[in-house]
Amino acid sequence: MNQVRVLLVDDHELVRRGLKEVLRDTRFAVCGEAENGEQGVEQTLKLKPGLVLLDMSMPVMTGLQAAKKIRKLAPETKIIIVTIHNSPQMQAEAVAAGADAYVTKMSAATTLVSAMEALFETPVPQL
Questions:
Q1: 98 Cβ partners below 8 Å, 6+ apart?
Q2: Quick one: pLDDT at residue 50?
Q3: Residue 87: which H helix or E strand, with range?
Q4: pLDDT tens string 44-61
Q5: Domains of the chain by range and CATH?
Q6: Half-sphere exposure (Cβ direction) of 16: Cα atoms closer than 13 Å
Q7: In this structure, what DSSP letter does residue 8 have?
Q8: Which 3 state secondary structure label does DSSP give 68?
Q9: Average pLDDT over residues 77-94
Q10: Phi-psi group of 8: left, alpha or beta (phi > 0 → left; psi -120 to 50 → alpha; rest → beta)
Q11: Count of beta carbons in the 10 Å neighbourhood of residue 13
Q12: Which residues contact 75 (CB under 8 A, 6 or more apart)?
């Protein structure tokens, strides 16, 4: 399995630290952090991560706004919204903004890595 570079974008340092802990001993390596959506877009263009984990509610630029910009400027980058909001409507908005997946912070410790793995699965070639 190849290592995947991950950018963490959340306005709370404690959440970013927790995400790093969840990703420890996985094939996902944190390559950078940002504390708002605007910084997240800038860091995506600078660091070229394979995956961006975006909080939905942040100052300066929301996760949805950042997802739209990242999808336009770096279409190959995978995006997962990691949020406190457990809402089908917000999930639909995230997907419409360009997110590849939506994970709630309440379940992130148990579901985030599997959601990330699903985005990077390599299909077995048919012989």
A1: 67, 68, 70, 71, 72, 79
A2: 96
A3: none
A4: 999 999 999 999 999 999
A5: 4-119 (3.40.50.2300)
A6: 18
A7: E
A8: helix
A9: 92
A10: beta
A11: 10
A12: none
